[in-house]
């Protein structure tokens, strides 16, 4: 097999808070992302102390989406993963009635995608929530958020049931362990007890969303989304193998609950040994047990290593890891491991026996415009080519793979550091870290490369 399946979904992935801008237009409320003008690695601010940030305008997708979607179609996309900003629909999160202007905006987006025969693939909560829910309820620490989220989900399902058939619940849900403000609206110094309690509420909300999708959109599919941070043992020392098992269990826990419908034994042991007691209400576990997702989606950028020796760890972008001496690093220090994608695909498929979807993969790099006004991003082409070759290998291994949406098909604001200089796109956006630039779009060399990959169903990969 030299090509991907005929029904394979090819495209790219973006997030509302990293592309839309228009943070205060048409009734939108402030989100937790709006309160992180320097990215998730910087402490959040109060509403009163908030300063302007690059995400306030981002790349102005809010106004420029018709042209951007046209460029995606030119590349051959048949799928675009995007997110709905919860605070556009319910500005404070706890209103009884939604904001019609926000709903109408996404109607226009989905109609534009339909004009170009591009399937919308929508994330319900992509690293943001209404900031008022943090101020007034303490974020996901309060189980009232389950009902607020349920109301939001029911609203968008009923509104878009004829336009959107593919859904995700929470983006990289396991990242709440490393960035709790971004994931569950808790302060960065929150205890493990508090974080896991908030996560429990989010897992119940995830189950409610799955059931609502089944009821309201019976011909739709809904999946979860993990940060696929697979860890290898640093050595063949059994202690390192066990260390890797523990590290992988930290994120597999979320997939196990969302797929198998119960808290796994290794997590119950972790709670016992660390004096973590999860407060549950009657019906929580039953709701989770009856709401297995239809498919598993994940991001994959890099692998890591785990060692029983704490001295081996080094500080990473968000997640600390042990460096792998066999792999090169990107300009931002992320390990480049294409074969790790094949390993991860096999690992997840063996574990869950559900269809998989690679919803984020890409290379953040500093792109330079040459004297001819062109951007020759061969490094990005090589990165994506090598990863897609390994995805094809996984298909040959028997893995059921639904699609591939590269992260940032158009340059966008980096989530971790709110930089524009960390570019992922096939399309260059003239905007810079200081907020200057014309916002003009320009095709990079990788644009025509990805266009050919899609047109040939992957036969052009090398």
Structure summary:
Helix content is 38%, strand content 13%.
Task: Give your account of this protein's structure.
Helices cover 38% and strands 13% of the residues. With 462 residues, it is of the alpha/beta class. The chain has one domain (9-455): Alpha-Beta Barrel (TIM Barrel), CATH 3.20.20. The strands form four sheets. The protein has an eight-stranded parallel beta barrel, surrounded by five helices. Strands 6-8 form a two-stranded parallel sheet. The longest helix has 25 residues, at 192-216. It is globular, with a radius of gyration of 21 Å. The mean pLDDT is 95. Keywords: Glycosidase, Hydrolase. It is an enzyme of class 3 (hydrolase). It holds the Pfam family Glyco_hydro_1. Belongs to the glycosyl hydrolase 1 family.
Distance linking N and C termini: 13 Å
**Share of helix among residues?**
25-40%
The CATH topology label is TIM Barrel
Low-confidence residue ranges: none
CATH structural class: Alpha Beta
**CATH superfamily, called what?**
Glycosidases
CATH architectural type? Alpha-Beta Barrel
- Summed up, the helix count is 14
| Mean pLDDT figure | 95
Quick one: biggest sheet? 8 strands, parallel, barrel
Query: Total number of β-strand segments?
Result: 14
Beta-strand share of residues: 5-15%
Give me the side-by-side strand order of the main sheet: 1-2-3-4-5-7-11-12
Spell out the helices and strands N to C: EHHEHHEHHEHHEEHHHEEEEHEHEEEH
Gyration radius, rounded: 21 Å
Molecular shape: globular
How many discrete domains?
1
- Helix/strand-derived class? alpha/beta
Keywords: Glycosidase, Hydrolase
Active site: 360 (nucleophile)
EC number: 3.2.1.86
Protein name: 6-phospho-beta-glucosidase
């Amino acid at each position: 097999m030299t090509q991907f399946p005929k029904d394979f979904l090819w495209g790219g992935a973006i997030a509302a808070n990293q592309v839309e801008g228009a943070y205060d237009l048409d009734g939108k409320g402030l989100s937790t992302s709006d309160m992180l003008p320097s990215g998730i690695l910087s402490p959040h601010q109060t509403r009163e102390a908030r300063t302007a940030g690059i995400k306030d305008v981002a790349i102005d997708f809010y106004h420029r989406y018709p042209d951007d979607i046209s460029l995606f179609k030119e590349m051959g996309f048949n799928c675009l993963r995007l997110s709905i900003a919860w605070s556009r629909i319910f500005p404070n999160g706890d209103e009884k009635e939604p904001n019609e202007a926000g709903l109408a905006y996404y109607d226009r987006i989905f109609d534009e995608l339909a004009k170009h025969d591009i399937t919308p693939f929508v994330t319900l909560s992509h690293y943001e929530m209404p900031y008022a829910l943090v101020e007034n309820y303490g974020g996901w620490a309060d189980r009232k958020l389950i009902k607020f989220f349920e109301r939001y989900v029911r609203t968008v399902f009923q509104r878009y049931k004829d336009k959107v058939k593919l859904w995700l619940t929470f983006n990289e849900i396991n990242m709440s362990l490393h960035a709790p403000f971004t994931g569950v609206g808790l302060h960065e110094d929150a205890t493990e007890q508090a974080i896991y309690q908030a996560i429990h509420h989010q897992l119940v909300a995830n189950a409610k969303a799955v059931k609502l999708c089944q009821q309201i959109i019976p011909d739709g599919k809904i999946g979860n989304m993990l940060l696929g941070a697979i860890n290898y043992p640093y050595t063949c020392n059994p202690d390192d193998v066990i260390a890797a098992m523990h590290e992988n269990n930290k994120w597999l826990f979320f997939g196990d609950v969302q797929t198998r419908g119960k808290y796994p034994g290794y997590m119950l042991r972790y709670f016992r040994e660390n004096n973590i007691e999860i407060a549950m209400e009657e019906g929580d576990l039953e709701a989770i047990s009856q709401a297995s997702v239809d498919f598993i989606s994940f991001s994959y950028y890099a692998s890591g290593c785990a060692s029983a020796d704490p001295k081996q760890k080094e500080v990473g972008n968000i997640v600390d890891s042990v460096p792998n001496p066999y792999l090169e690093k990107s300009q931002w220090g992320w390990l480049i491991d294409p074969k790790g994608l094949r390993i991860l695909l096999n690992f997840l498929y063996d574990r869950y026996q559900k269809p998989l979807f690679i919803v984020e993969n890409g290379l953040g790099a500093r792109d330079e415009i040459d004297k001819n006004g062109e951007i020759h991003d061969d490094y990005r082409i090589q990165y994506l080519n090598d990863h897609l070759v390994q995805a094809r290998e996984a298909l040959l291994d028997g893995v059921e793979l639904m699609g591939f949406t590269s992260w940032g098909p158009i340059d966008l604001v980096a989530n971790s550091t709110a930089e524009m200089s960390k570019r992922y796109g096939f399309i260059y956006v003239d905007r810079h870290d200081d907020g200057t630039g014309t916002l003009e779009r320009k095709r990079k060399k990788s644009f025509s490369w990805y266009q050919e990959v899609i047109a040939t169903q992957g036969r052009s990969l090398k």
